[in-house]
C-alpha cells in the first residue's frame, strides 16, 4: 500500500477552567469556596500534564484524522488516591479531570463547545499511532486512559460517525425524543 502518509502532531491546548461547565459535568448545584480553591490548584497542576495530538487525514478525502487529548497515568493515580482518602474529593477530582480534557479538546477544536464529541472508530493507522504513544485501543471501544477525548479531525458531528452511539446516553435521549414525535 505504500508508506504511511498520516503524521501525528503534538499540539498545545489552552483549557480555561469554567466553573459552570464543571458543575454541569459533576451535577453540583453549588460549590464551597474551599472546594473551588482545591479544584483550581489541581486544574493548574494537571493542565501541564495534558497530552494532545492531532493526526491530519492521510489523504484529501480520507476520514482517518483525529484529535486525541488525555491525561496520563500519574493523574489517574492522583484521582484514585483522592477516592481512597476522601470519597467526596475523589469524585470532585474525577469530574475535574473529565472537565479538563473536555475543555482542552474544545480549546483546539471550538466546534466541540456545547455539543457532542463523537468518538470515531480508529483506523488501523490511528491504532498504530496510539501504540507509539503507549496507548491501547480495545475492541469494546475504549482506551487504556480513563480521562481522554478522541474525536474526528477535522470535526464531524453526529451520532452516525460515533463508535459508541448505541450506548451513549445523549444518543439514546435523542432517539427517545424522535419516537415521541
What does this protein structure show overall?
- The protein has 181 residues and is an alpha+beta fold.
- It has one domain (8-180): 3-Layer(aba) Sandwich (NADH Oxidase), CATH 3.40.109.
- It has helices at 19-26, 33-47, 73-85, 87-108, 124-132, 169-180; strands spanning 8-10, 50-55, 66-71, 148-152.
- Strands 1-2-3-4 form a four-stranded antiparallel beta sheet.
- The longest helix has 22 residues, at 87-108.
- The protein starts with 7 loop residues before the first strand and ends with a helix.
- 27% of the residues are buried.
Order of strands, widest sheet: 1-2-3-4
Gyration radius (Cα, Å) is 17 Å
SSE arrangement, N to C: EHHEEHHHEH
Structural class: alpha+beta
Count of helical regions: 6
Mean pLDDT: 82
The amount of helix comes to 40-55%
For the secondary structure, the number of strands is 4
What is the domain tally?
1
What overall form do the CA principal axes indicate?
globular
Which architecture would the CATH scheme give at its second level? 3-Layer(aba) Sandwich
Q: What are the low-pLDDT stretches, counting only 5+ consecutive residues below 50?
A: 169-181
CATH class: Alpha Beta
Biggest beta-sheet profile: 4 strands, antiparallel
Features:
single chain; 181 residues; alpha+beta; NADH Oxidase; 4-stranded antiparallel β-sheet; 6 helices; 44% helix; disordered C terminus
Provide a quick synopsis of the model.
The chain is α+β, with helices and mostly antiparallel strands and 181 residues long.
Amino acid at each position: 500500500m505504500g508508506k504511511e502518509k498520516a503524521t501525528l502532531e503534538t499540539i498545545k491546548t489552552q483549557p480555561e477552567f469554567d466553573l459552570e461547565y464543571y458543575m454541569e459535568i459533576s451535577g453540583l448545584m453549588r460549590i464551597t469556596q474551599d472546594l473551588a480553591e482545591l479544584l483550581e490548584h489541581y486544574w493548574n497542576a494537571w493542565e501541564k500534564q495534558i497530552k494532545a495530538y492531532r493526526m491530519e487525514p492521510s489523504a484529501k478525502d480520507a476520514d482517518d484524522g483525529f484529535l486525541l487529548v488525555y491525561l496520563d497515568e500519574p493523574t489517574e493515580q492522583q484521582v484514585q488516591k483522592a477516592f481512597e482518602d476522601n470519597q467526596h474529593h475523589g469524585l470532585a477530582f474525577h469530574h475535574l479531570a473529565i472537565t479538563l480534557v473536555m475543555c482542552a479538546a474544545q480549546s483546539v477544536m471550538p466546534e466541540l463547545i456545547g455539543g457532542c464529541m463523537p468518538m470515531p472508530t480508529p483506523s488501523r493507522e490511528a491504532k498504530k499511532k496510539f501504540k507509539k504513544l503507549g496507548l491501547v485501543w480495545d475492541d469494546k471501544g475504549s482506551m487504556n486512559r480513563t480521562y481522554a477525548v478522541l474525536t474526528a479531525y477535522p470535526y464531524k458531528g453526529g451520532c452516525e460517525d460515533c463508535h459508541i452511539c448505541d450506548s451513549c446516553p445523549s444518543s439514546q435521549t435523542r432517539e427517545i425524543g424522535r419516537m415521541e414525535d
